[in-house]
Each structure stands twice: as C-alpha cells, then as structure tokens.
Amino acid sequence: MITISCRCAAPRSVAETHVGQAFVCKTCGITTRLTCAEHLRPGSGGDDFDATLTILFGPDRIGERFQLGGITDIQIGKSADRTLCLNAPAVSRAHARLVRVDFGPSRWRIVDQRSTNGIFVNERRIDEHTLQEGDVIYIGNYVLQFGRAHSHGVLQNHQPQVGPEFGAVPAFEVAFKIASA
Ligand SMILES: [Zn+2]
Fold first, then answer.
1. What is the pLDDT of residue 151?
2. Ligand 1 centroid from CA 28, angstroms
3. 176 pLDDT exceeds 80?
4. So what's the pLDDT on residue 35?
5. How does DSSP classify residue 80?
6. 107 and 101 in contact (C-beta within 8 Å)?
7. How would you class 175 by CB atoms within 10 Å of its CB: exposed for 0-12, middle for 13-18, buried for 19 or more?
8. How much distance in Å is there from the Cα of 37 to the middle of ligand 1?
C-alpha cells in the first residue's frame, strides 16, 4: 500500500494498482496524483512516493500535488501520454524528465528535453539539476515546488510579476514556509 500525504496532513492508503489515478482529499479538496512510469507489484510501493511536486501557480490545477515513485524516468510535458502532463501553451510536448537518483529519502534529478522555453530552478535556467527540498521549478506556464510527502507547506506570499528573463513565463516571488504537521 502507498500512503497519500495530502498537504492538509490527512493520510490515506491506496493500493499500487491505483498509481496514476487522481485522489481528491475529502478534507481540503486538493488533488494528489501518485506519479510513476511503471507498473508496481502489490506491496512494492510502500517505502516510496516520499517526494512531491506541488503546483504553486499555473493556468489551472493550483495546489495539485504529484507524489513521485518508481525507478523509471518520469516524462513531463504537454502531451496527454506524458506520465506527468502539464497542458499549457508554453509547455513542450516532451519538456522534461525526472530521473531517479536515490531512495530513502528519494532524490530526483530534473533534465531538460531540449524544450522550447527551458526549465528554470530557483530562477536560474538549468539543463539538469538534482532537486533539493524547496526548489521552485518553472516549466512553461507552471510553477512547481519540490518537497517531501511528510512536509506540509504553507504558501505565505504569492505576488505575481512578469520577469523579462523568463519571457512568456511569469516570475514569482514566493515565500514558502515549511510547517511541520
Ligand atoms: Zn487534504
């Protein structure tokens, strides 16, 4: 079984066969997706899915959280067949991929797939970058934050502004406080 860790801290266990589905929290209404590019045998995912990407800003789905698992690269892009689909104009069809680096705790590297608009992490353009807790990632029209499934971030300040260095991508000053559950 895999534990879904909603940012409101309401836990929920689901079977490995439900990987890929969206779960809407009954307490806070936020959607969590168990995101994994391979089929998992029953019982094999319990110690995984401890890293998350949360949508801080975008054209839709703000607050949605992806819990990452498995060892197969997770493809990110606009195409519906991507494991992590972000459907917006400035996102390339095959924009980026997440590469598993380590387990317990999970470490992931994000790699640009020669996308049109690139990837920015903490406002710096990167080709690839090993993600650290709290990293803010700009992918096209979306701003996501990497974190831990047991951390429950409280978004404190969310001031949109357009930065020329990002072209069509809005830059944000985001103060993000990690509060322990
Ligand atoms: Zn919740």
1. 60
2. 4
3. no
4. 96
5. T
6. yes
7. exposed
8. 24
As a three-state string, the secondary structure of 87-134 is: CCCCCCCCCEEEEEEECCCCEEEEEECCCCCCEEECCEEECEEECCCC
Query: Distance between CA 10 and CA 131 in Å, rounded?
Result: 25
Give the predicted TM-score (pTM) of the model: 0.82
What's the rounded Cα separation, in Å, for the pair 129 and 144? 14
CA of 11 to the centre of ligand 1 (A): 8
Confidence of residue 161 (pLDDT cuts 50, 70, 90): very low
* Euclidean distance between CA atoms 142 and 59, whole angstroms: 7
- Please give the pLDDT value at position 67: 95
Dist. CA 31 → ligand 1 center (Å): 8
Q: Which tokens is 60 given? A: 């839709």
List, as ranges, residues with CB under 5 A of the ion ligand 1.
6, 8, 10, 25, 27-28, 30
Token code pair at residue 135: 């990293």
Q: Which residue has the higher pLDDT, 42 or 152?
A: 42
Most confidently modeled range among 13-17, 25-29, 97-101:
97-101
What separation in Å is there between the alpha carbon of 86 and the centre of ligand 1? 21
For the record, the structure tokens of 113 come out as 């797939």
CA 30–ligand 1 middle distance (angstroms): 6
Tell me, what amino acid is at 40? L
